[in-house]
Structures are given as C-alpha cells and as structure tokens.
Amino acid sequence: MEFKEILRELVERVDGARAAILMGYDGIAIDEYRKEGVDTDIQLIGIEYSSVLKEMKRASEILEAGEVAEVSIVTGKGMVVVRGVTDEYFIMVSLTVEGNLGKARYLMKTASPKLKELL
Amino acid sequence: MEFKEILRELVERVDGARAAILMGYDGIAIDEYRKEGVDTDIQLIGIEYSSVLKEMKRASEILEAGEVAEVSIVTGKGMVVVRGVTDEYFIMVSLTVEGNLGKARYLMKTASPKLKELL
Lengths: 119, 119
Known about the structure:
2 copies of one chain form a homodimer.
Chain A: H1 3-12, E1 17-24, E2 29-34, H2 42-62, E3 68-75, E4 78-84, E5 89-95, H3 101-118
Antiparallel strand pairs in A: 1-2, 1-5, 3-4, 4-5
Helix pairs in contact in A: 1-3
C-alpha cells in the first residue's frame, strides 16, 4: 500500500474529514490526499502547526511526560488531528467542525505503524 | 458555585482524571483541584503548555481557522485537555493514559461558560 492510499482511506472513512498529509517536522510534505471539491490547504496547515508541535515536544520533554503521540486542535472553523509516525514525520488530518474526531483518532492510530513501515 | 467546586467536579466525574486548573495564558493560576493521593504538578504542566497554546493561537490566526477552542495532547505517560474560557484564561485537565478523554472534553465544554460567568 502506498502513502497516498493510506491517506485516502483516512479521509474517505471519516465523516467530515477534508484532507490528510504525511509531513516532516521540518515542514516538508511526503504526500497528501484531499477530498474531491475541498480546497483545504493542508500543506499550509501542516507547516504552521509543525512549529507548534516542535514546541509541544519540547514542553513534554521538560515535563518528562513521554513522547507526544497525538494532538487534537479544535478551532471555530474546524478540527485538526496530528499523530507522530517517527521522530521525523507526522500525519495530520483536517476535519469540519462536525467531523468525527474519535474515528479520525482511531484510524490514525492504526495507520501510523503502516506508514512507519513504508518510511 | 466557586471555581474550585467546578474544577473538583471535572476531576471527580471523569475516569482517570488527576487534576484540573484554571489559569491565565500568562501562566498565573486562579485555582486548581487535585485528586486525593495524586502528585501531578498541574501548575507546572499549565505553565509549560501555556506558551505552546499562545503559539497555537498565533498559528490559527495566520490560518484564519478561527479561535482555538480546545486542544488535547496525548503523550506516553498521560493526556492533557485544554479549553479556552476567555481571551485571558483557560482550563486544563490532566488524565492518565487510560483516562476518559471524551468525557473530559464534554464536561469541560459545559464547565467553560460557568467559569466565564464567575470571572
């Protein structure tokens, strides 16, 4: 299975999911999938949040809270779920405000080791 | 109802919840509640993540994603849910890795307007 196929499944199987991306913490994307008719700029979202994620990793280290596995952000206009795949890469899914956050979290948890194998 | 009573309810009604805090984005706490026998330093967690939250607000502004309403962070050793109460204050709940994240999110959503009224 290819990167894009895994990202496609994440988007198509979750109600309200708009787009998914596999990206490095340096802001460089490996692959992305966008639902038809959706104009979400998932690359831009990934780039903006990747620096926040790095800050979060740093805070968790200071707190000795262990590795950051997952972060969910709910804003006025949508939701974003991020899950670490390796030390260098993460996946991110963008959803509408009514999207199924729980299912996105669940499917990303199962997709993460599959992506790790491919990297 | 007082601040501490609302925080106490958040902790006692959620499986796996350890502590809750009402804090300013400047890192200064108004009140906190810790489950008996728990040694979680919720003040320190709040202070460390408050700077990350400010970064996240900034990223969301750039993305025109609307106000950051809620952030959940899952690490190797636990979970943290943060919800904005006003522009200046947020509530944060710390949970064990097996904690009920969904219930914490739900109760924080209902507690937020109550806390806002008291502020």
